[in-house]
Amino acid sequence: MSLFDAVMAGDETRVEELLAEGEDPNPIGERGRTPLMMAAQAGHAKIVSALLAAGAEPMLTDSTGETALLIAAAHGHSGVCALLMPHASDDDRDLARTLLKTSGGSMLDAPPGPPEDAPPPSDARRKLASAGAYVANKLGDDGPTKRLARLFRSEKGRK
């Protein structure tokens, strides 16, 4: 079982075993994603912690320019975001906070770990995040700073 397979299965024990055996915590997989990004997307907080402890690089970006923090925020995983926040740039932190506020949760008030009674992320939120990444790619927004600036400009017209 590869590290990617163990992360996707949510098998914390196998992930820890592979990392202890010297498995690279930063391989690049499909769409430029790392195991950390996949764990962040799935909301596996314990696996995210294990990967970070083993040296997983939280600032790597996938093929659309998203970090593990932004992926977790787009999927509403505030507990995972809390783990990744200390490793993020200021721009990524701001964008993640905005994504979490938009999804109805506030990371600043959330305890560590996933909420126990939270509903699964909605398909609408996933589609919105995917559409945002597609539009950002087409507009040439090659980083979180440009995306955040565009978001703030769009919000000014709504107030």
Structural class: mainly alpha
Q: Please tell me what the overall shape is.
A: elongated
What is the assigned CATH homologous superfamily?
Answer: Ankyrin repeat-containing domain
Q: What is the top-level CATH class?
A: Mainly Alpha
Number of continuous helical runs = 9
Percent strand: under 5%
Give the averaged pLDDT, no decimals.
Answer: 80
Largest sheet: none
Query: What value does the Rg take, in angstroms?
Result: 15 Å
Distance between the termini: 51 Å
Share of helix among residues?
A: 55-70%
Number of individual domains? 1
CATH fold-level assignment? Serine Threonine Protein Phosphatase 5, Tetratricopeptide repeat
If classified by CATH, what would the architecture be?
Answer: Alpha Horseshoe
Secondary structure: number of strands: 0
Report low-confidence residues grouped into runs of 5 or more. Answer: 105-115
Query: SSE order in H/E notation?
Result: HHHHHHHHH
